[in-house]
Amino acid sequence: MIPFGIIMLAFIASVGTVLQNYHRISRKNPHWLAPAVSTIAGIVAGALFIGALAPSPAPAAVAALQTPRIVAGQGVPTSVNMGMAGAPISVTQLQAPATAAHVDHFTLTVQPGQLTLGSGITVPAWTFDGTAPGPTLRVRRGDEIVVTLVNHLSFGVTIHWHGVRVPNSADGVAGVTQDAVKPGQTYVYRFIALDAGTYWYHSHQFSFEETTNGLYGMLIVDPATPTLHADVDYSVALHVWDGPNNQTVYTMNTTGGTLNQIARSGQWVRLRIVNTAETPSGNPQLVTLVGAPFQVVSLDGHDLNGPQWLNGTPLPIGSAQRYDLYFQMPSHGSVALVTADDSQSYVRAPALVMGQGSVPTRLPAITKWFDLTTYGTPAPDPITLQSHFDATYNIVLGNQLGTSLGRMGMTYTMNGKVFPNTGMIMVKKGQLIKLHFDNQTNLYHPMHLHGHVFTVLDQNGKPLTGSPVRQDTVLVPPHATYDVAFVANNPGIWMLHCHNFLHANWGMDMMVMYDVSTPYAVGSASGNFPD
Ligand code: C2O
Ligand code: CU
Distance from the CA of 401 to the center of ligand 2, in angstroms? Predict the structure, then answer.
């Protein structure tokens, strides 16, 4: 009787698990596993899980995360070396100078965790130090940063310092600048914080699975002397989770509900916002501030010149982008940061409330989006459309059904190809390089370049009319073009990819290459898969 009951339970749970897997695959196509393998794994996992629970039924189960897994197979490269064979220098030699007045040491331990995002909403996660976002690392410009990564997960991880001009050996790209750090192992990242601003970190091994499931945190670099007076300096990471019952849970830091932060009337606030996720639609996260006029004082950590005051302007934040807002607390009442859901109206949760109060019951309608091409005040900039470019690369962003790393499905292409067949952008130290992004899809593509900061030159051929804008991730809207330019001043092998994790996972990655070799390789032999 009892064994029969257990079998029945196992069967029911298996069906549930399979449906769960089916849902995840259909929504995000996340895995290297063929759906059939995944289904079988689901049945086995479901049976084992219930088998374990059967003696003492436990409260509502949360679906376990699927461990990123590498399968060899047709179209999966065994070993692709991204470097230049015979190059004069190797990635491993591109290290931070060993001289800095001040050194900041951190240890980050990756480990499994359970996150409570709201009442009754608990999700399994992979975390830095048990939380997601992981600890905020706060340092001063010019400091040397030494971070020891300890891996207590059962699969490989890395840390990429998003937007930070690190030496190549510290870039954290599995298969390019290092091997993924294996379970039980440690790895040390060392770099100088060259630029002040708002940055973040995340795993760059299976970055789609690992970052969306919690391996991210913030890095804030303060200037040597403050450029802006802030009484309150607060940071918010916007994330999206697969919650119980297939619901999508949007969070600010650790909650899908209301975050509260103390701020008194008259105080000046710097609010740093990073989008660490992607929305189910792949559209940017839309946020605004209710209760006070505000300025956008920096984008991707880089200050804007002469920012104007805005009132309730919707801010589109592409995956990986950062916006720093600046405002003064009103003489009474609170200020709220709210987000819009994918159907494009503001919602009351998650939200941040600063000062005494709660999220307003009436939220504004969405008005014309913030436009970085017209915002702020012009200023001289070393890189302009009139500059002499040593090379210009056209990059057509496309999507089509096809095969990527052995999987069939919707692929996301650069010049019609998927990674690792996308080719390279060859640069020499000192060159000024222009990139022309031509988005021929109906989707947004937040395009990110590692190790460099680029200047945004124009959108759809129209030059910027406001402040110079420097970013590491430019949000290219559907059927739009963007021109950006960067000085090749940081030798190495650097990824250039869409920061919509799904798009990167399905092909939209390439390398910017400085005649550098690497001892590492991407593929099933090493198990390194950067996206
Ligand atoms: Cu946020 Cu390739 O990075
Ligand atoms: Cu994309």
Answer: 15
